[in-house]
Amino acid sequence: MERKSFPEDFLWGTATAAYQIEGADFEEGKGPSIWTDFSHRQGRVFSGHNGDIACNHYYRCSEDISLMRELGVNAYRFSVSWPRVLPAGSGRINRKGLDFYSKLVDELLESRITPLVTLYHWDLPLSLQEKIGGWESRDIVNYFGDYASVVFEALGDRAKLWITLNEPFCSSHLSYLWGEHAPGKKDPRLSFIVAHNLLLSHGEGVRRFRETVKNGKIGLSNVSSHAEAISGSQEDLFAAKLRDQFVNGWFFLPPVSGEYPQELFERLDSYGIAPEILPGDMDLISTPLDFWGVNYYTRSIVRAEESELLGYSEVSGDLRKTEMGWEIFPKGLERFLIKAHAEYGNRPIYITENGMAARDRPVNGRVEDLERIAYLRDHIQAAGRALESGVDLRGYFVWSLLDNFEWAHGYSKRFGLIYVDFSDGQRRLRKDSYEFYRRFLNY
Ligand code: IFM
Fold it and tell me: Out of 107, 136, 167, 327, which one is annotated catalytic?
């Protein structure tokens, strides 16, 4: 499948997130985030890695834009660091922080690269965690709204494509159910409260957007997983449904239907951990959004397990796996896109993340990441097939432009099209997959 099989205005890009690439974590007026704190706590992140310097993108931004220009992308997805803009989470604005993003947007536009801006990709200002418990408190909704308004006002005259939150599934459950991400708590009840507050904040973000940004579009990027039952038994099929509701439905349905998925909600309710819904909550959550961001990496296979909180357990599949241990299943992307198109409010869709971690090593100045090339080729084809089936697909963003700080895995997992040598001044080296994508985009 070639680029010309896709619509001419299709967005082809790469994606990154602030804490994963920027570095300069204590510089230029930036405040600490919950990830600054978490990564500096012993035993939380692989080998004690942290985002203090990361890819040093804050200081090498122009070089990274040149690399994108050479690549031939026409879009770039990045996130704004809330504590870089509002060091204490609210109140005083750090002008240097806003200027950084403003210049980034200008340079992208000069390079004919459309910016797709994510407001929140997991780096909550630490002061809000300490002051109100972060996402655990409903008060966060207004704090997020105020932050969103500051950023919309600063960039919204030029940046027209926006995402409120990246993967609220992770900021709730990875952070609060399994405790693997900041702030590292393990409390099922809290994790569903956090998920609810994230969705409320998403709605508030969309509301503020309509007040401020003219001719813009805003959406939500979700983890998107294709769930399969291990057998055709009724119990396993129901388990797959619960898994689908937990990962996908919980975050894809309420914004378009104003309702949580019924079966999972009832199950949580029976354990006394369903979130409390106040009058007006679901109206705010379902403030109409313009598009979906689909972040697709893998599938999951499940079997019924009544003793588990969520009614299922995951089974390891036998397909080839990436360095993250995730099965490679491009067909799942096609199926998920068709499902999202049919079940989640018939909105335009951007694949806002897709890519794989591999054990990349430079040999004589070259990184031959053949598996990644195959992965990208097969997923782009799957996206093309979904488009042919009638899905309103508008764009595809490779995760990621650069090798970067992969959260609890630190720098041990490499997702980039560009190799970053973290032991040699963050030197960049184009991998073979960069060359593959460049050719795909240019011919
Ligand atoms: O690196 C992450 C990104 O921050 C969110 N989505 C998944 C990616 C790979 O794990």
Answer: 167
